[in-house]
Specification:
alpha/beta
Length: 387
């Protein structure tokens, strides 16, 4: 069985990342970016992928045809997992800090993207709290949902606050797209006559098996994405925001979308596509074919790196101190500068983003992160803060 899976993945890799097929010549290393190649194994890997950024920035070209792009900034915040203040104030404090720092950016960001999981259990109390906190940011705000926002009432409260979960707009030569990767999960609740809180409880576990492979884009949204991009020049920059990564990282934790192959087929004609995603609560970088992907920090807590599937192009973040609630978390500031590059700066509050020694790396012992789904399936009752 494993041999068959490996053969299938090998064929998919050949199809999606053919010889010489890479993201458009937009990943640029600048003087202000230190370099390393320590994670590569063998000269072939270096020849294929080149150098990696060591500090908390990734620079990629998004200049407009015929001249340099207009400079602008935008910011990303996600995965706040808010409880009501009387239940948990730590997550509230960290969300407030991120929001205040984004509002204080100089020059100001053009917009803020919230990447989902504003709430922990999708309760209106949590979503209203998050909405009030985000009102501190006076710039334009756009939103995509996370699974924790959605499955108590199947998105009713979230959409009443933030609107449609997928959207697109053009800004200074870039087409931005927001995808909904959370609302199309299989119905695991009706046949078992689950209450809304039971449904939400199973969705709120990282390694539970009851909710299944809930992360996906869906046929209807794939058609919408194809139509949305059809009017855009093939070589102009596209940035796609999603809660889940648009590739197969680690399916048992829904660190993927189940129809990622179809997503890549839609995106394949375009040479300059960047996916910025949340959900994984960790620094990630990957390239498949012409698509590059950047994973973002959470403000709530860092997840461990999965026991397998961490992209070879990822420089793992530093191991977090479990006794320091502000360690291993943060948000991102992204700048499009006059040199036509976007820089993604991870703002991690307690430490430098990346480990200098293997013993400090978050990937140092990730192979031991094997959890027990059946135990997680039995724990949903403990997630109900409002019983």
């Amino acid at each position: 069985m494993m041999d068959e899976i490996q053969r299938e993945r090998s064929e998919l890799q050949k199809t999606l990342q053919g010889k010489g097929e890479r993201p458009g010549g937009s990943l640029q290393i600048t003087r202000r970016t230190f370099l390393h190649k320590s994670v590569m194994t063998g000269a072939a890997g270096v020849a294929t992928y080149g150098w990696f950024p060591l500090i908390g920035t990734l620079d990629f070209l998004v200049g407009q045809a015929g001249g340099p792009a207009t400079a602008f900034k935008f910011a990303w915040i996600s995965d706040n997992h808010l409880y009501p203040k009387e239940v948990n104030t730590r997550f509230v404090d960290k969300a407030v800090r991120a929001v205040k720092e984004v509002q204080a950016m100089k020059p100001a960001a053009d917009f803020l993207i919230h990447g989902g999981d504003l709430a922990q259990l999708g309760d209106p109390v949590e979503l209203d709290l998050g909405n009030e906190i985000l009102k501190e940011v006076k710039i334009r705000k756009v939103f995509i949902p996370g699974e924790h926002d959605w499955y108590l009432d199947l998105g009713q409260k979230w959409t009443s606050l933030f609107g449609q979960p997928n959207w697109t707009f053009d800004h200074k030569g870039v087409r931005f797209v927001g995808l909904d990767t959370v609302s199309r999960g299989p119905d695991y609740w009706t046949a078992k006559k689950m209450s809304p809180k039971e449904r939400m409880g199973h969705m709120a576990t990282l390694d539970g098996s009851v909710a299944g492979s809930w992360a996906g884009v869906g046929r209807d949204q794939l058609q919408w994405l194809n139509q949305t991009l059809s009017s855009w020049p093939k070589d102009k920059p596209i940035v796609i925001f999603s809660h889940n990564p648009l590739y197969e990282y680690y399916p048992p934790w829904n660190f993927w979308v189940r129809d990622w192959r179809e997503v890549h087929e839609v995106l394949r004609p375009y040479s300059n596509v960047t996916n910025i995603h949340g959900h994984t609560h960790q620094v990630l970088y990957n390239e498949i074919g012409k698509l590059r992907s950047i994973g973002m920090l959470a403000t709530s807590w860092p997840w461990p790196y999965a026991p397998e599937g961490v992209p070879a192009l990822t420089k793992c973040m530093v191991r977090a101190d479990p006794g320091d609630f502000f360690d291993g978390v943060g948000y991102s500031r992204l700048t499009m500068n006059a040199a036509s590059k976007i820089e993604n700066e991870y703002v991690m509050w307690r430490k430098d983003t990346f480990a200098e020694a293997a013993v400090d790396s978050g990937c140092g012992d990730n192979v031991n992160q094997v959890l027990h789904p059946r135990i997680a399936d039995q724990e949903w009752t403990y997630y109900g803060a409002y019983k």
